Amino acid sequence: QVQLVESGGGLVQPGQSLRLSCTQSQFGFSLYAMTWVRQAPGKEVEGVASTTRSGASTHYADFARGRFAISKDNDKDTLYLQMNDLKPEDTAIYYCARYNTSQIPTRRLAYEYRGQGTQVTVSS
Predict the structure, then answer these.
(1) For 41-94, how does the pLDDT look when each residue is reduced to its tens digit (9 = 90+)?
(2) Alpha carbon distance, N-terminus to C-terminus of the chain
(3) Phi, psi values for residue 66, rounded to 5°
(4) Phi-psi label, residue 63: left if phi above 0, alpha if psi -120 to 50, beta otherwise
(5) Which residues contact 86 (CB under 8 A, 6 or more apart)?
(6) Is 105 exposed, middle or buried (CB count within 10 Å of its CB: 0-12, 13-18, 19+)?
């Protein structure tokens, strides 16, 4: 069973930044594409950003493009999400997830494993 552990969430004011991290303890982190998804209270899970197994190619949701940056460090088995200019509507639980392919699938929410999540709250 693959275990993904997120960290870095917290309470910030609008306009501030956060960097989320996600680690995988099992072998194989470098073999798979990965993604960040989020779920706000009362809403469905939505994709945030995805990257290929190498990290060379990325995809962003419209709301994330230009503000968020996903990166993958295969030497450290760690996935990152740098979030800048945060807005109250970014408040959600953020999850990292692993696909079962090396490329980003068309269905961005078709991941195989997902972590427990980290809370991000943006409020003044």
Answers:
(1) 999 999 999 999 999 999 999 999 999 999 999 999 999 999 999 999 999 999
(2) 39
(3) 90, -20
(4) alpha
(5) 12, 14, 15, 16, 17, 18, 67, 120, 122
(6) middle
